Structure formats: structure tokens, C-alpha cells
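# step 3/5: fold
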Amino acid sequence: MDIDLDKLNLHDYKPLREIVFESIREAILDGRLKPGERVMEIQLAEKLGVSRTPVREAIRKLELEGLLIMEPRKGAYVADVSLKDVIDVLEIRASLEGLAASLAATRASEEEIEILKEKSAQFKECIEKNDVQGMISKDTEFHEVILHAAKNKKLTTIIESLREQVQRFRVTYFTEYNMTAYLASEHQNVIDAIESREPEKANEYAQNHIENIEKFIVSRVKDGFKNDSLNNIKE
């Protein structure tokens, strides 16, 4: 097994165990470690240039997050993703993102609304440049501003954990969605509803945004999408 991981920057201010955890976790989320692939302590340690102890700690933590599965006498494997799992997560997330947007419509400051507009403009620039990683980054930042504006820490924690569970196929979504520009208009609808202080509309538009992602993924998996992260999702 040849794992696509680089040696770590051990001069980072974070504890080593945290750096190792984040590195392995990122490799799972961006598809370098694929569903069903075996994860071995000694190989990861060699690749990352660390001892096996922080790798072992990271594997345990990733198992708790559901990203790795431990099988007796076999070791750790990257967890599979089923279509039902994805749909379940997106259904919950749609409702919660709608709630966040509705709260933001009543609680967002004028400064937060301006930041939302900036993130939306930056997202559009990434579309024009066909910058997929940029689109992912700015879309994430856009939703983070809404969560911050909702001013509900518990809601933020729940939504962020759900978002991470579907992170593995976001590159495919932003690469293949043939109406990428429509995503920008969906963002704009949410902004307009928040700025005009219309919580019901903000809820509706935010939910529709997530539901469109769900519809896209379901259609592509059922069409037998190949050679990308969606191909790792099982019906």
C-alpha cells in the first residue's frame, strides 16, 4: 500500500498527536485514503516521520469519529460510505442549515451580512477561475458566517460534525455539478432573505440549497458515476 502522505511539519505549534490526527483525517476526507483501504500504524508512522504512538492515538480518535473501523485480528480500515448514510446526513443538515439561516435573519449584524456578501463574491470569482478547491473553501466560509450569525454554539457544533461526514465527495460535487453558477444564486437568495430579515424565506432557501446537493448525489450514484469520490458511495 502506497499512502499519499507527506512528512509532517514538526515545528507546528500544535501538539504532535493533534498534527498526526489532522493529517490522517484530511487524507480520508479528500480521498487519498479510500473507503475500505487498510490503515497500518507502521506505514503511516514512516510516511509521516513520527513514532507509532501518536498514529495509534489518531487511529483511535478517528474510529470514534466513524472515519475508521477496527476489525478484530485485522486492524483498521477506512469506513465505507453508503448512499443511505449520505442521504440521512443531508436530510438532517438541510433542516439544521435552514434553522441557522432563519436565526441569522433575526440575529445577524450588518457587518456579518457584509461578510456574507464578500464570501459570495469570492465564491463567484472561484467559479470564473474554475478553482474547485477555492469554491469548496469559500462555500465552507459562507456557511460558517451564517452559523456565527445564528449565535447558537450548540447548533454550530452539530452542523459542523455533519458537514465533515460528507466532506469526502465535495470535490466531485463542485467539479461535476453542471450548474455551478446556480450555487452562487442559491447563496444570493439566502443573503437577500437574511438582509431583509425574513427568517421563513431564509430557512426555505438554505434548505433548498442542501436538498439540491442531495438530489445531485443520488442521481449521480444511481447513474453509475465512475472514477471519483462518488464511486466510493455504495447504494
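# step 4/5: annotate
Strands lie at 38-39, 68-71, 75-78, 81-82, 233-234.
# step 5/5: archive (pending)
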